Amino acid sequence: MADQYLNAESRLFHEIFQHVSTGIAVYEAVDEGKDFVFKDINPAGTSIGKMPREAYIGRRLTEVYPGVRETGLLEVLQRVWKTGVPEKFAVTRYRDERIELWVENYVTRLPSGENLTVFEDLTARKQTEAEKAHLLKQIHRVQKMEALAALAAGIAHDFNNLLMPILGYAQMGARRSASEEPHHRYFMRILDASRRAKDLVGQILLLSRDNPSAEKGADLVPILKECVKLLRAGVPEFLEISYEKLPQTAPVPADPVELHQIVMNLGVNAYQAVGKKSGWVRFQLECPCETAHFLRKVSDAPTPWVRLSVLDSGPGVSPEVREKIFEPYFSTKKPEEGTGLGLFIVSGVVQRLGGAVWVEDAPQGGAAFHVLLPMAP
């Protein structure tokens, strides 16, 4: 009767071992418990590890999973083997050159002295949680952008209404005064300042556009040359601003004003990052972009791309700052040095044009901002 009971129990364990959805592995300690050899593993375990059963049996744990020491699981196996006290090992990320998993383990010691682990693959759940967190972050950013866009639109329209009489009266005063009179110069300065303010209103309104700009089309090459001239005129002599060899043309289905905003904001951000010391800002333009490193950012889109890169010799951008650098009002500069809107405007324009913008380390140190825009036919 006892033999029949044991046989029935063995068959039950065998059925569970073969058909349960969680992984089960049996280990034998070697080298006085410093390592463990696979004695058996069930089909669910081989599926989780993505290797056949033959690749496990008789091999050391540290050989099959070379990254196991970093996870802490090997220490748990050693402790359970010595004490006989079962332990639950919390969800842990395992990674090596072959595989990456999130696994939860329960470890116990069998009466035979062997260790048994029951483990569950939680990779799909972790990926879902990460995707959910990313989606929530994106939703939060979109809500923030929508609120800012509405605020910007209201302020811009009100400001534009205030500018109209200033421009009108300044034009009337300039026409009614002779060019050699002091009052005429004053009126002209008011006109210049008002026109700059009107341009600023247009820049703010870029944030509130719901629809893509009319695809007039513009060549980025002359716009880049013009922006570099403007930047050179406004920076100290010890700061070098240059561009590498340019293509003959770089057509982009965009408004020239929007392209001007992208180049100028990236250029100003770069030279402010360098600071008040000797350094350089360098522009690169590739048309069409054929560098795989950059095209990975837009790998799903078959269209040809134009790449604009702005590199600087500044201190670079830390990983923590990179996550927030394109958010509105985020700035690492002093209040008098920046508004936190420049890179946000760049991001908004690039996204509206169907492109991509990101920052990484420059090859020679500093930061490198890259923009990919669809190439016009």
What does this structure look like?
The strands form three sheets. The chain has a five-stranded antiparallel beta sheet. Strands 7-9-10-12-11 form a five-stranded mixed beta sheet. The protein has a two-stranded antiparallel sheet with strand order 6-8. The chain is 46% helix and 21% strand. It has twelve helices and twelve strands. It is elongated, with a radius of gyration of 32 Å. A hairpin with a 4-residue loop joins strand 1 and strand 2 (35-41). Helix 6 (123-175) runs antiparallel to helix 7, helix 8 (220-234) packs parallel to helix 9 (256-274) and helix 9 packs antiparallel against helix 12. It folds into three domains: 19-121, Beta-Lactamase, CATH 3.30.450.20; 144-208; 218-374, Histidine kinase-like ATPase, C-terminal domain (Heat Shock Protein 90), CATH 3.30.565.10. With 377 residues, it is an alpha+beta fold.
- Annotated CATH topology of the largest domain: Heat Shock Protein 90
Task: Give the beta-strand count.
Answer: 12
- As a percent range, the share of helical residues equals 40-55%
Shape assignment? elongated
Task: State which percent range the strand residues make up.
Answer: 15-25%
Gyration radius (Cα, Å) is 32 Å
Q: State the CATH architecture of the largest domain.
A: 2-Layer Sandwich
Give the mean pLDDT.
Answer: 82
Question: Which spans have pLDDT < 50 for at least 5 consecutive residues?
Answer: none
Largest sheet: 5 strands, antiparallel
User: What is the distance, rounded to the nearest whole angstrom, between the alpha carbons of the first and last residues?
Assistant: 85 Å
> What is the spatial order of strands in the main beta sheet?
2-1-5-4-3
- Total number of distinct structural domains: 3
* Alpha plus pi helix count: 12
